[in-house]
Design a protein that fits this description.
This protein has 221 residues and is α+β, with helices and mostly antiparallel strands. Helices cover 41% and strands 25% of the residues. The protein contains 5 helices and 8 strands, in the order αββββββββαααα. The protein has an 8-stranded antiparallel β-barrel.
């Protein structure tokens, strides 16, 4: 009886260990789950909805299943552990890696950003150009925004502006539009400041006068 109980305990422990490993391995494609806005090479736009994942017995291959709209096209994002690469192929949900073509030229390689919020695609079997997670394009900050240029990149007051951006403006559609416009125009405004010391001084004075008000708004519960 003791031998049986010992075997059961060992099997239970093994089960939990394997479950933990499988869960960790599935994180290769977990980051793909969600809604993606994808631009094709002809500049048309489709929406991807990725909802489920699958891991092969060897743990080397991982799949995320999705549906592209319009068209309700079922597809798979494949993580190939041998090459540490991601690929796109149109196949029905439930298809396993054992039923996918071994020739990777029949797929299109996707190259995700480090935070898995955007990706680009290499030329391949499908006309995919790029994509970003969500339905609102992420804001790409320039190397130097207007505030950092006027105050200096190491000025601690920049944190007040970042908090105002993230905790106030980013919560509304209008605010998001203002954030996008701010970063889009930063290079042009910096160019004006570089050409005109008077404009530089004026904008810096305006910004510094607004900072106390912005600080209050950030801390207003």
């Amino acid at each position: 009886m003791k031998a049986i109980l010992k075997s059961v305990h060992c099997m239970t422990l093994l089960f939990f260990l394997l479950t933990t490993v499988a869960f960790a391995e599935s994180e290769y494609v977990d980051d793909w789950l969600g809604t993606w806005t994808v631009t094709l090479t002809d500049q048309s736009v489709v929406t991807w909805e990725l909802t489920d994942t699958w891991v092969s017995d060897t743990g080397m291959s991982h799949l995320a299943y999705g549906v592209a709209s319009p068209g309700n096209v079922e597809f798979i994002v494949l993580y190939n552990g041998m090459f540490s690469s991601y690929y796109y192929i149109e196949r029905p949900a439930g298809t396993t890696v054992y039923d996918l073509p071994q020739d990777l030229s029949q797929l299109s390689e996707l190259v995700p950003s480090d935070d898995f919020q955007t990706f680009t695609a290499k030329e391949g079997a499908y006309p995919i150009e790029s994509g970003y997670k969500g339905t609102v394009a992420p804001v790409t900050e320039p190397e130097l925004c207007v505030a950092a240029y006027l105050l200096g990149e190491d000025d601690p007051r920049l944190e007040i502006l970042r908090q105002f951006r993230d905790k106030n403006l980013a919560l509304s559609t209008t605010g998001k539009a203002l954030i996008t416009m701010y970063y889009e125009k930063s290079d042009a405004v910096i160019g004006i400041c570089e050409k005109s010391p008077a404009a530089n001084r004026s904008l810096k004075l305006i910004l510094e006068s607004l900072l106390p008000v912005i600080n209050v708004l950030c801390n207003d519960e």
